[in-house]
Design brief:
- By secondary structure, the chain is of the alpha+beta class.
- It is about 40% helix and about 15% strand.
- The chain is built from 18 helices and 22 strands.
- The strands form 6 sheets. The chain has a 6-stranded antiparallel β-sheet, with helices on one face.
- Helix 2 packs antiparallel against helix 3 and helix 11 crosses helix 14.
- The radius of gyration is 28 Å and the shape is globular.
């Protein structure tokens, strides 16, 4: 599965300079001649040594420059991308860079993620790919007479990252946490998304969260500096703790967390936190053309992605207009099955559903159904204006919170990660230790310890063809539009052989299965001169909405020794 990468060899050792003293002159002609020969020989040795040292240093520096440019990372904040790259430069691997990036994002994107968030990490090493399930769990005793008592999921991010680090990491734990401490205590510039979300939900935010972003009751502006001193103290305790045994300080942090959750009429206990375990699962593989696509396991929605791609791969090549119809219909078919996904530890049929979605029989059946459907129907021009009220512009990026990290190190180890609080500022609760609580349980009724299904789906792609090896770490926003966006980007890359940068810029569609509406990036279609496709899709799908943004997809990729990143400009920066 993927390519098995070899570890880099030790750096060449620079030879030591030997200092040779010049012989003294002598009046004796014979001795003088002998000494003259020695001087010549010594000069030659010195010259050769200097040349040798110069060549060795040049080779070494070239090797170092090559190594320094053979890794890549991208996150949702420049400060955190710089942190991840710094970790890689210090000799850390992709997992180290990702962990450092998470702690950094917890500080600078507090509306999007916290130490109480949940998510999924996909890691590829030595030809093997694993899903690390970091999703929250349902607390014990959440039902009384059938009534749900908690919207806050039990987090386990801190101890889980420690275990991931022990299993895969290379640098010390302190080196991964300390950059976040520096940012929290020293200050950082507030992001536009944070300002937007504080302003949008100001009346619902508790006083301790409001005070972080206001001065004398006035909301700080984008680019102004804020500090999180309490979170800095918490991170320092996290950095110093050995999670083979919890320190009393770390125990105090968790007790504070439980107290905050319970006082807000939600359920959680210390026992819930102690029972939490990160789960290492297999990744879902699917071969598209000559690429190996690896997706995260349930309870993420990773399985939906290869299912969509497999159906699209089964459909014949058509013009771009028809291709968009194929995309819409494939997404509708697969997304309609999302409600069947469950935490595999609590649903014995979960594996059967997964196998079905990836089975050649299901894929071919759905492709045939789509072809028959599109061949038998024609655009209904009479219905084109039937629902003009729905043609209001819609922005799809503010519904959920999420952060994304993609990293590939110099050894070929690749990581993609997506995490979320559920919605901006999660449950709108913050502990005294500066931890903002999630609301990832939504309105679901789950069994004790069960993990909610999520639309998060971090993905890795590998291709080995002749002497060229390509690796892609791809991440998208933690919602179904993000999942749809990722499917379209990957299809453009693999099916249509479009380079990653252009694939990310391509206009997108999203069929909302719940509402029956089709979201279209209408302005982006116009920008690319594809108005004809927009008109066709509006006739084909009367219930359409012009969307500003559909998902946000970031990519880190490595081709042989060269690396690059693509950051999707959709949504908040």
């Amino acid at each position: 599965m993927g390519r098995e990468y070899q570890r880099h060899v030790n750096e060449p050792e620079v030879p030591k300079t030997e200092i040779i003293e010049s012989p003294r002159a002598d009046k004796d002609e014979k001795k003088c001649c002998g000494d003259g020969f020695k001087v010549i020989v010594a000069g030659c040795i010195i010259f050769a040594s200097v040349i040798g040292i110069g060549l060795a240093v040049d080779i070494y520096s070239r090797r170092l420059r090559s190594l320094n440019h053979s890794y890549v990372a991208i996150t949702d904040a420049k400060e955190c991308t710089d942190t991840a790259k710094s970790v890689l430069k210090q000799g850390g691997n992709a997992v180290d860079a990702t962990i450092a990036g998470i702690f950094c994002l917890v500080v600078v994107r507090p509306d999007q993620i916290s130490l109480a968030g949940g998510g999924f990490l996909l890691v590829h090493r030595n030809g093997k790919t694993k899903t690390v399930d970091l999703q929250v769990t349902s607390p014990n005793s959440t039902l009384v007479a059938g009534k749900k008592l908690s919207k806050v999921g039990v987090p386990g991010l801190i101890t889980s990252l420690w275990k991931v680090h022990k299993k895969y990491g290379r640098l010390s734990w302190s080196k991964l946490v300390s950059p976040a401490i520096k940012l929290a205590s020293g200050g950082f510039k507030i992001f536009s998304s944070t300002v937007y979300h504080v302003n949008a939900s100001f009346s619902d935010l508790p006083l301790n969260i409001r005070e972080l972003f206001t001065v004398n009751g006035t909301l700080k502006k984008t680019g102004e500096t804020i500090k999180l001193p309490q979170l800095a103290k918490t991170l320092k305790i996290i950095m110093q703790n050995d999670y083979t045994a919890w320190s009393s300080e770390f125990n105090d942090i968790l007790e504070d967390l439980v107290s905050t959750v319970v006082s807000s009429n939600n359920a959680m206990s210390m026992e819930d936190l102690k029972l939490y375990e990160a789960i290492f699962r297999k990744a879902y593989p699917v071969k598209i053309r000559d690429h190996q696509v690896l997706c995260s396991a349930v309870p993420s929605s990773g399985v939906l992605l290869p299912s969509v791609l497999s159906i699209l791969n089964e459909l014949p090549n058509r013009n771009k207009t028809i291709t968009y119809e194929f995309i819409i219909e494939s997404l509708k078919v697969v997304f309609a099955k999302k409600h069947l996904l469950q935490d595999p530890a609590f649903d014995q049929t979960a594996q059967n559903i997964t196998s079905k979605l990836l089975s050649p029989t299901f894929v071919k059946e759905q492709a045939d159904i789509i072809l028959r459907k599109l061949n038998q129907t024609s655009p209904d021009k009479g219905n084109a204006a039937k629902n003009t009220v729905k043609n209001a512009a819609k922005n799809t990026v503010t519904k959920t919170s999420s952060v994304k990290i993609a990293a590939i190190d110099r050894d070929g180890e690749a990581v993609s990660l997506v995490m979320s609080l559920g919605q901006p500022f999660g449950a709108k609760l913050m502990t005294k230790s500066g931890i903002i609580m999630n609301n990832l349980l939504n309105d679901e009724v789950l069994l004790d310890g069960e993990r909610p299904v999520s639309s998060m789906a971090p993905t890795l792609i590998f291709q080995q063809k002749k002497d060229v090896t390509k690796s892609y770490a791809i991440v998208a926003s933690a919602d179904k539009p993000g999942l749809a966006a990722m499917a379209q980007v990957i299809m453009e890359m693999l099916e249509n052989n479009i380079e990653a940068k252009k694939a990310v810029q391509t206009p997108r569609v999203y069929p909302d299965v719940e509402s029956g509406n089709l979201l279209l990036e209408e302005k982006r279609f116009a920008k690319f001169g594809l108005d004809g496709i927009t008109r066709h899709l509006k006739m084909r799908y009367p219930d359409h909405i012009a969307a500003h943004n559909i998902g946000a997809v970031n990519i880190a990729f490595k081709e042989s020794a060269s690396t690059n990143v693509i950051k999707d400009k959709r949504g908040f920066q």
